[in-house]
Amino acid sequence: MRDFIEVLQKCALFDGIAPRDLNAMLGCLGGRVAAFERGESIFSAHGPAEDVGVVLSGAVQIVMDDFDGNRTIQDRVEPGGLFGEAFACAGVERLPVTVEGVTPGRALIIRLIRITATCSSACAFHNRMVMNLLRVMAARNLQLSRKLEITSRRTTREKLMAYLMSQAQEARSSRFTIPFDRQALADYLCVERSALSAEIGRLRREGVLESERSRFTLLGLENGGEL
Amino acid sequence: MRDFIEVLQKCALFDGIAPRDLNAMLGCLGGRVAAFERGESIFSAHGPAEDVGVVLSGAVQIVMDDFDGNRTIQDRVEPGGLFGEAFACAGVERLPVTVEGVTPGRALIIRLIRITATCSSACAFHNRMVMNLLRVMAARNLQLSRKLEITSRRTTREKLMAYLMSQAQEARSSRFTIPFDRQALADYLCVERSALSAEIGRLRREGVLESERSRFTLLGLENGGEL
DNA sequence: AAATGTATGTTGGAAATCCAACATGGAGGG
DNA sequence: CCCTCCATGTTGGATTTCCAACATACATTT
Predict the structure, then answer these.
(1) Is the pTM value of this prediction over 0.90?
(2) Of B137, B160, B208, which to mutate for an interface test with A (greatest number of A Cβ within 10 Å)?
(3) Which of A44, A171, A173, B67 to pair with A103, CA 20 to 30 A apart?
């Protein structure tokens, strides 16, 4: 556990809690460290949802099975990231998703109630953690809203432009690199890869943007590059 | 305000707070009651996001309008329901959505900071409210995920069926009433109203479902009606 | 009854997407 | 260098959606 103190300090859940207090907290929280392999389930769909997980090393992904039995990767979580918090906080009886290892690694598993229930004595940090949880979930909410805003556009071009503009805004520059290759971007935007490529070509020919692989530059934004 | 005590008791934000304590709380929170008409904005896009709203009567919906006049209904909120909490908790400067009345009604508007900042004295219920907020945001999170799951389908038919099945699941019956008219359902699913109507007609002719206005029955689910 | 308004269903042509297939071009290995 | 692999770009025809317009049904008002 000692090896993971640095990761935990970066974790939003422990934001504002001093390193030396962290140890006391961890004792109070009574978590356990679970090792996982690539492809191994940490939380299983239809299982209980009482626990929150923090990735300590390696990576996990949240996988959803839809009506047709197709699997969709909802999200990927890296060290310092949380998983399962929404389900535990919402108090669902059965998890609708599976959390599985993408690589071998370890995760800290904490019973949510140990975070939210104010304990008697020393660790006065429960409130802080609850507020941190609030912030994490609100941020996640916004992210989902933004994705909805993008994917609810009707045409490939509109979705692409909405995405690129949000990326430019995030990078505070009209030149930026996106974290997707073409196929992944198409999946994200809910469009065809070929239609996406075609649209990018069209926008390039129209002088709206320049692009090379995952590197994009939006033109005609009435500035040289910085936003 | 007194008239709405019953609604507030049902509100997840005040869960676990006794009726007589509610009055003291409300004083401490310093909310105001806003009346709204059908189509009137309660919160406007690009405006500040410091407030949380509770629907007291009538109904509101959270909408995103884009440049082309296409609109997406993110959600509809009935009496006792909250709106705006995620944006306030995340501390965004400008709201990315509009909240408007679906029918005439009233809403209680509370400054978020009055909920999260523990006050000096009497009202020891802030902790409880923060926990309630946590639960509400988690629930909204799940809901947004579900909506993404539905709208990320490619065809009108798939979106419609995914939606109807989720509604059936929620109602625990293959016969249920949806809270949208055709235009609103189209906006929710991000499709054309006419294409939606056509698809419903097709599904009806194929014997997949029966429908009359907002009342649907899914057939061929290997059961008489109850799920 | 007539007029009006609203919700839903239907239809036809324009436009966009989807899908499959192939073209291109760079990276890396033999 | 040649070859393969893989990401990306391109293209054409089948399919679907989009849009505008009109049809139908029902409720309300005058």
Answers:
(1) no
(2) B137
(3) A171
